[in-house]
């Protein structure tokens, strides 16, 4: 029987979702907890691969079990996991749906603050920039859904069969004081470090180091960016994953009400 697990995690203490030798990953920590509880090895498949120190306010993985649980696995698993990982739902599925390959949309949000704040340091990226041109940044963001090939915004494009991404949503928000920024993007798929690279280019536009026309030339493939500087991983959240058969509202309230912040579209 296949089960989907609906979870969230803070990624600052992990080297990403995917299990890798010699580093601490979210996948490995969960597999170790499940294996200890069930007293046999358990392997899980996640809905994607977040980078080191990247968060997920909604994430799914699936696992197969021979029998139904005769105890409260949700409660016991949450007690076993660190505070940085929470399991919200364990859902018995019909057939063998795939947590990664069946996802039709993934949404990400990237948060920036332009003043030093010890309470935002692990959830938002600190960039000391006081004169960003939000209108030009917004112009650049509005172009994203008009183009499909994101080869120029990927660290290792040749490892993919193709670099086509169907960007369905892209928007930029600021707070009333203009010292906090939220970049939102949704697509059927994303390439390696694609969102952080886009965020880095959008910040460069805001600082006047790149024009919107140059950015569009990079988008349409006319030229490659001269410099690819990914934004910091802290501040990036996988915030929603949607399936044809499963569309759950994220349980965490971090994205909708961060210290009472009202996000205004630029």
Automatic annotation (TrEMBL):
Q: Where does substrate bind?
A: 108
Q: Name one GO molecular function term.
A: RNA binding
The entry's active site is: 51 (nucleophile)
**Which superkingdom does the taxonomy of this entry point to?**
Bacteria
Q: Which InterPro entries match?
A: PsdUridine_synth_cat_dom_sf, PsdUridine_synth_TruA, PsdUridine_synth_TruA_a/b_dom, PsdUridine_synth_TruA_C, TruA/RsuA/RluB/E/F_N
Q: Which residues form the Pseudouridine synthase I TruA alpha/beta domain?
A: 8-87, 148-244
Record's CDD domains?
Answer: PseudoU_synth_EcTruA
* Catalytic activity line of the entry: uridine(38/39/40) in tRNA = pseudouridine(38/39/40) in tRNA
Q: Which Pfam families match?
A: PseudoU_synth_1
Q: What is this protein called?
A: tRNA pseudouridine synthase A
Q: Which organism is it from?
A: Pedobacter paludis
């Amino acid at each position: 029987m296949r089960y989907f697990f609906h979870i969230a995690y803070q990624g600052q203490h992990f080297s990403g979702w995917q299990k890798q030798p010699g580093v601490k990953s979210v996948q490995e920590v969960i597999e170790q907890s499940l294996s200890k509880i069930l007293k046999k090895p358990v392997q899980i498949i996640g809905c994607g691969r977040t980078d080191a120190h990247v968060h997920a306010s909604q994430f799914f993985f699936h696992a197969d079990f021979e029998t139904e649980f005769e105890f409260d696995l949700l409660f016991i698993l949450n007690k076993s996991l660190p505070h940085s990982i929470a399991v919200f739902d364990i859902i018995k599925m019909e057939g063998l749906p795939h947590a990664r390959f069946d996802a039709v949309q993934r949404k990400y949000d990237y948060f920036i603050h332009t003043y030093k704040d010890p309470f935002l340091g692990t959830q938002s990226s600190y960039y000391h920039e006081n004169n960003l041109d939000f209108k030009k940044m917004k112009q650049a963001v509005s172009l994203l859904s008009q183009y499909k090939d994101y080869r120029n915004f990927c660290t290792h494009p040749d490892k993919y069969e193709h670099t086509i991404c169907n960007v369905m949503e892209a928007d930029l928000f600021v707070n009333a004081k203009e010292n906090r920024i939220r970049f939102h993007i949704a697509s059927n798929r994303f390439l390696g470090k694609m969102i952080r690279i886009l965020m880095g280019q959008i910040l460069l536009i805001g600082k006047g180091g790149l024009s919107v026309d140059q950015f569009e030339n990079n988008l349409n493939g006319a030229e490659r960016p001269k410099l690819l500087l990914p934004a910091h991983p802290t501040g990036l959240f996988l915030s929603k994953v949607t399936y044809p058969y499963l569309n759950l509202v994220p349980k965490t309230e971090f994205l909708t009400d961060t210290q009472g912040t009202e996000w205004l579209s630029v």
